[in-house]
Amino acid sequence: MNRRIVFALTGTLLWLVPGTALAHGALEGLGDFYAGLLHPFVVPSELLAVVATALLLGRGGRAACRAGTVVLAVGVATGLVLSAALPQPPDATPLLLATALAAAGAVTAGLRAPLWLAVGVAAVCGLAVGTDAVPEAGAAAGRLWSAVATVIGCVALATVIAGLTLGAHLHWHRVAARVAGSWISACAFLYFAMLLVQHWALWTAGGAVGNSGSGG
Amino acid sequence: MTRARCGIIGFAVCLAAIIVAAPVLGHTETGGAGGFSSGFLHPVLGPDHVIAMIAVGLWGVFLGAPAIWVLPIVFPLIMALGGAFGMIEVPLPAVETGIALSAVVLGICVALALKPPLWAAALIVGIFAVFHGYAHGTEMPVASDAVSYALGFVVATGLLHLCGIAFGGLAKWPVGRIAVRTAGVLIAFAGGAFLTGMA
Question: Where in chain B are the domains?
């Protein structure tokens, strides 16, 4: 079959499969395995971080792809275990978006990260995804099953994107990778701008409360 | 079936799937401006945004390489900067006028098939990107899921650029070139209608 048709069909399926998938709540109906497997695909911050990291690994060459995907898998597993041990897992969204911004920024600028840096970014990304994707309360077997599926889903996504980037020999392939990097960078930048606004609003509200309290 | 025809059919199927597919929403969505769908629909449902983004793609075709791929890479980044200005509420006068003016100026550039130096084209597009981003950004602080909202409007903007580039591909043929330049005239007129309040 023509490769373009395969790509077109795969793209179509990727767009159709998510449907109205909602992170957490609505994924419960899918069962533990599929809820875990789809987690990196349906949570935007995880998706952006994994895709950006995979683009960076793909541009880093074959060695970066090999080491990076393994480190990513280990990172996700470590993050899942550490978060499961904590009573209240921290919000990993800022770390996910920071990773996405750094990796996508490098891809947009056309930079090739050295092996140690690309693998380091993969490790941080894996830890953040694992922390964010920790299964919610349920039976131990179900949570374990969901966690294993998250590792598989995350590594599969990263491997496909990194492989496509690694095999990008045509000019427009490389341009497409940089456009993807640009879009991810823009999203991450906007998130941090919004975070800044929220913190500023909280700080000013706190100041106002403090002033009214001292005045009363 | 030729490879080119397969590619066109595949692209059309993907585009149809994008339009048909229900939105993918991370976490819960509350409020009018929450989530991917709100972000995606914001540029798409604003005709002034739509024509300006398509004009950027059309103009990129006339400018040729490297502008045709530099503009879609740079535009979202500058638009994000404009979005940040909007969120922080940096005073920016006449945002709606700037957006309408962007359609007029970019439409004229397409209609006349202007080819200024890359830095000048990037400057023109960059200035207008700030206005477009500002308009999106002012709606973002009320969004419950900022990442989904940002992803939605960045993807929508990028797809509109791609629509412009795809249509601009007709300029390879003499008749197509006339069609693309006519589109530029129509965009300029539509921008003028927004600018004068007729639309």
Answer: 3-28+35-198
The answer to whether B113 and B181 have CB atoms below 8 angstroms apart is yes
User: For residues A17 and A26, what is the distance between their CA atoms, to the nearest angstrom?
Assistant: 14
Q: What are phi and psi of A22, to 5 degrees?
A: -115, 140
- How far A147 CA lies from chain B's nearest CA (Å)? 18
Cα separation, A45 vs A192, in Å, equals 12
How far is B38 from B23, CA to CA, in rounded Å? Answer: 10
| Cα(A131)–Cα(B7) distance, integer angstroms | 40
Torsion of CA A67, A69, A73, A74, to 10 degrees: 10
How high is the pLDDT of residue A8? 61
CB-closest option in B21, B27, B77 to A186? B77
Query: Are A21 and B73 an interchain contact pair (Cβ–Cβ within 8 Å)?
Result: no
CA-wise closest residue to A18 among A46, A43, A51: A43
Express each pLDDT in B7-61 by its tens digit: 555 555 555 554 445 444 444 444 434 578 888 888 888 888 899 999 999 998 8
Q: How far apart are CA B72 and CA B57, in angstroms?
A: 8
